[in-house]
Amino acid sequence: MDELVVEQRGAVTVVTLNRPEAHNSITAGMAVGMAEAIDAFAGDDSARVLVITGAGDRSFCSGANLKDVDELLRHAHTERAGPIGFAHLDPGKPTIAAVNGYCFAGGMELACWCDFRIASANAEFGALNRRWGVPFIDGGTQRFPRIVGQGNALYLIETGVRIDAARAQAMGLVQEVVAARGTGGVPPTGAAGAASGNAALDRALELAERIAGYPQSSLRTDRAATLAAFGDLQAGLYMESGLGRPAATDPEMIEGLRNFVAGNRPEAPRPA
What we know:
The chain has helices at about 30-45, 70, 80, 105-115, 140-150, 150-160, 165-170, 190-195, 200-210, 215-225, 235-245, 250-260; strands at about 5-10, 10-15, 50-55, 60, 95-100, 100-105, 115-120, 125, 160-165, 175-180. By secondary structure, it is an alpha/beta fold. The chain has a single domain, classed as Alpha-Beta Complex (2-enoyl-CoA Hydratase, Chain A, domain 1). It is built from twelve helices and ten strands. The longest helix is centred in the N-terminal third of the chain and has 16 residues, at about 30-45. Residues about 185-195 have low confidence and may be disordered. Helix content is about 45%, strand content about 15%. The protein has a six-stranded mixed β-sheet with strand order 1-2-3-5-7-10, sandwiched between helices. A four-stranded mixed β-sheet has the order 4-6-8-9.
């Protein structure tokens, strides 16, 4: 089974993280595939919009596979793209995150790498990496404050609080929330859940197809100008990397990873 699935749906490219049994956490192999998928999308004139989602009904992405940290820090695209394969890349075209379920740590960085986010009602967000001492080195320190403001960004980063889709939408992290599939808005599990589809993806595809139908030249220049509004993102990303990479070898983080592997996983705080 491919851990990363890339599909062409007309002018829309869909990238699906496909490790649902591990909450779609990103391995080094997936990071390489992500960087290459973004490159391919950027270079394909017929591809106009990129949508990223997670397999299953429980998780968009829970971040990096913490059992694979060494490989994530030294794969073929780490330096140019970032450890989990996207942070420094810009395809120059619209990107949408379809967030179905858990969106934690590096998964939140991936969602925020996208231009905007559509979330299912069962989505949850949080800097749960705070519990293990794992730094944000895939763009979180730079993109979070650009999206939700400095106070909200620091609230998420420093507390490791776990928030629902409604709270995420209220702070601007999410642009639309759609009802999760299943009775009463609660997603079904097992085979029924797999058969029900991904409501966030359905809405993201609907918007992607509309975007793909617009004249592209002005859309892309408007996108580029908007992304440049908050200063030099690439300089900020390299500063983040320079500050954060040494923290990835800190003894407290190494001990945190031992606790994670051993199953010692304390609950993240919830908003008051």
